Amino acid sequence: MRKRITILVLLPACIIAILLLLRSHCINKRNTTWQNIEATVANSWENYVSTNSEVPYPFSDALESGILYYWDLYFIQKGLLLHGKYELAKYNVDNLIFLVDKYGYVPNATVSWGYDRSQFPFLSMIVCDYYFSQSPETHNLKWLKKAYLALRKEYEFWTDSIIEDHNTDIYGLQRYGQHAHDSVLIGVYDALKQTRFKKYPEPQGVLAKKEFGANVIAECESGYDFTPRFQRQICNYVPVELNANLWMYEMNFIKIEQELDYYSGIQWQQKADRRKDLINKYCWDENRGAFVDYNYVTDTLNPVISYATFYPMLWGFATQEQAKRIVKNLNILETTNGIRFCQHTTSPITYQWDHNSIWPPVQYVCYRALDKYGYRKDAERIARNYLNIITKNYNSPKPESYMDNRSNIVIREPGNLYEKYNINGNILDYADYPAGQMIGWCGGVFSDALHFITTER
């Protein structure tokens, strides 16, 4: 009887021990896979390097060989710097500086269609990431001075109206725009009506087509081509993330001028404080507990909450109370497979930047923002979910095949990363175009997320 009682007492302990052993095995297996993917990323950067006659140095391509895309590089640089690829990282930065010197802005992409707008600005952060990642004894002040002058020029592009009008009715807050020729604006719908806009009603008349085209190209400038977030009226909105990034530019100018021991006479802190106050006044929604875009034409807040709510946290100017409210509403954007780009809308079109999409930069912004405000547990969960969605499709890509633009069936092989994913944990193929195989910001964010949960404790 005593032996039977002893067995019954020990049995639950044995079960627990077995479960813990199985859990440990799964974790170790997962960690081994993560390290294998990390090795793939670290050893692949040189395989995704292109040249283009528009820029003087080789650069990291994002998806298409030979094309330099702007905002992708911020996230690509994260991986390059973690892996010690300083030469390639410097080439990337120098190419962006070269483009600003040549055009007064960084084009959306170094290809014929990419010059009538810029793209979501990150050059200030790219410059600082590269420069301040180096040991102080290797700091090159001459290089930093050149970069600083380029940043000033790019900042003017975003805050004046000489090349492109980013002004809004609120002095001190900017919007996305474009400087395309009228013929391009008029032709935008016709060029895309059989693909991306096939369910969208055709604008009637020349003026309507121009307005439609202006909003479409401005949406390209945002980097989110395309999304239901702005209801095809992006030119009427003060976007949260654009103005948050410009706040960071203003703060970085203080940092760089101190490093250069140079005083420009510009009160950057005052500019930054004013922008922060305006973002809080016009873009903070007290009822919903989120930062949302402000429509300055209709004097209304965007009904759509997007991942942009995290940018004031990412750069550190949200209040602790605002951060608390944002985290409380995390379920609006969080899925079991990551942070969606925006909440569900009634859009008749499925876009690649909508409630179905899980994009690498979105995950990075979210887990880094949460961690900055002390929400480590939430941040780690989101970073792990991203590592897991990459791992799942690295081992067994789903869908297993897709049709390319020439109607050829392409079979996906294990061992690759892809541009975009969906909330079901698969590769995102059904919106706009099939996801391409790449390292790019997928690899950069993977390496950063892995470093975040394994090293930054």
What would your notes on this structure say?
With 457 residues, the chain is mainly α. Among the domains are: 35-166, no CATH class; 333-457, no CATH class. 50% of the residues lie in helices and 6% in strands. The chain has helices spanning 2-42, 72-82, 86-103, 123-133, 141-159, 182-192, 206-222, 240-260, 268-283, 311-315, 320-328, 360-372, 376-395, 440-454; strands at residues 49-50, 59-60, 237-238, 284-285, 290-291, 294-295, 300-301, 334-335, 338-339, 357-358, 401-403, 409-411, 421-422. A hairpin with a 5-residue loop joins strand 11 and strand 12 (409-411). The protein is globular, with a radius of gyration of 23 Å. The model has no long low-confidence stretch (mean pLDDT 94).
Q: Summary?
A:
By secondary structure, the chain is mainly alpha-helical. The chain has helices at 2-42, 72-82, 86-103, 123-133, 141-159, 182-192, 206-222, 240-260, 268-283, 311-315, 320-328, 360-372, 376-395, 440-454, and strands spanning 49-50, 59-60, 237-238, 284-285, 290-291, 294-295, 300-301, 334-335, 338-339, 357-358, 401-403, 409-411, 421-422. Among the domains are: 35-166, no CATH class; 333-457, no CATH class.
